């Protein structure tokens, strides 16, 4: 048996280009243009009131493009006022088109997520227009959670007041690091003083939950600086801390530079080091009273500060997705919107749903998807899968679970599978073994 320190430590695995984070299943390369009609078909079915519904809106504008970023974002002239105005209009029309669909009749969203890009790039007036407009189509007064992603330097007191009044319950700040040198050299638009200014004011006006995102392994990160970032995070005492491990997908500026130089290895820490840094962050936060809630986050009080978006998404809820390149899901049908601004705006203006590609999952794919996503919580409940899918995961995944247990990454106790910390920190690497054979070596793009 190998010691369960780090799955990859023996290989000293370097960071090379490509996607690491498993955001969904089956891999996106299996979602096809020719399946777009599946979304329309499922939306024409009778309303399924029992399935929770969410709403995701992608706001693709940012002040600057960070060197490591792989999201669909527009900056500079492509993020001018008239483009934002056209975008808001399109999003509202897109939502109206969904609200007319039989599958959604009588259903209101339980969870809302404004992601990006940088949702907080919008002005207070634009935010009011957008959110009042959305609520007039689909009220969400009874939503359990409204998450809003922010880049700290875009926030001021007025904008935070407006967000609070508009019903945001979970404010998520892209802090990433506390060192101005590291922030600048990674192309971030904000500096550390903006972190403190926005955090302190947001705290003072009483958002229910404040989350801070950090990235382990930014360009120029050091042991000493990471140590200080973790200490500064704990001192701020946010309700939730999310720590991502730096990945370098092909559409990042960092990869572009590697490609020009002919480099294979990215100029950031290797995977064992990044995992050790996340482990350090989690341990320090646990010492300060936090609980590790999943592979990426630690929360101050797990009963009070839940992350409903993640919980719903990983247990098969429906989700309307709005905006360019966003991802949605209805009753086993995955879809992604048009990836570029022009086609997105044009298709909505033409009265169409702007869907770019889709996939209708088989029953087996649905089971694998939930097993994979729920492993990211750090545990699986055998009875849940028995009841929902009529499948015994101990039989169906005996090889994969047995291998992880033999490697010291998980324990099986009665009906519960629990990942040990080293397994949890490497989960995105380990999950591929659970994929169906045809998906094993697919690229996540
Ligand atoms: C859409 S951004 C959050 C809001 C805002 N755009 C910002 O960056 O402040 C979502 C998060 O993804 C994470 N992220 C972005 N690129 C990453 C990468 N290459 N590797 C790991 N995490 C990344 C960052 O922690 C970032 O806060
Ligand atoms: S601010 Fe956020 S979304 Fe925008 S480029 Fe940077 S990481 Fe990407």
Bound molecules: S-adenosylmethionine, iron/sulfur cluster
Shape: globular
What is the typical, i.e. mean, pLDDT?
95
The helix count comes to 17
Q: How is this fold's topology laid out?
A:
Blueprint: H1 36-43, E1 53-59, H2 81-99, E2 111-116, H3 124-137, E3 145-150, H4 157-165, E4 170-176, H5 180-185, H6 192-204, E5 209-216, H7 223-236, E6 240-245, H8 253-261, H9 271-287, E7 291-292, E8 297-299, H10 308-313, E9 318-322, E10 327-330, E11 333-337, H11 341-349, E12 355-360, H12 363-375, E13 379-381, H13 382-389, H14 393-396, H15 398-406, E14 410-413, E15 416-419, H16 421-425, H17 427-430
Parallel strand pairs: 1-2, 1-9, 2-3, 3-4, 4-5, 5-6
Antiparallel strand pairs: 6-8, 7-8, 10-11, 11-12, 13-15, 14-15
The protein binds S-adenosylmethionine (SAM) and iron/sulfur cluster (SF4).
Task: Give a written overview of the molecule.
By secondary structure, the chain is of the alpha/beta class. The chain folds into two domains: 292 residues, TIM Barrel, CATH 3.20.20.70; 84 residues, Arc Repressor Mutant, subunit A, CATH 1.10.10.920. The protein has a nine-stranded mixed sheet. A three-stranded antiparallel sheet has the order 10-11-12, covered by helices on one side. Strand 2, helix 3 and strand 3 form a beta-alpha-beta unit. The longest helix has 19 residues. It is globular and about 55 Å long. The N terminus is likely disordered. The protein binds S-adenosylmethionine and iron/sulfur cluster. S-adenosylmethionine binds next to strand 2, strand 4 and strand 5.
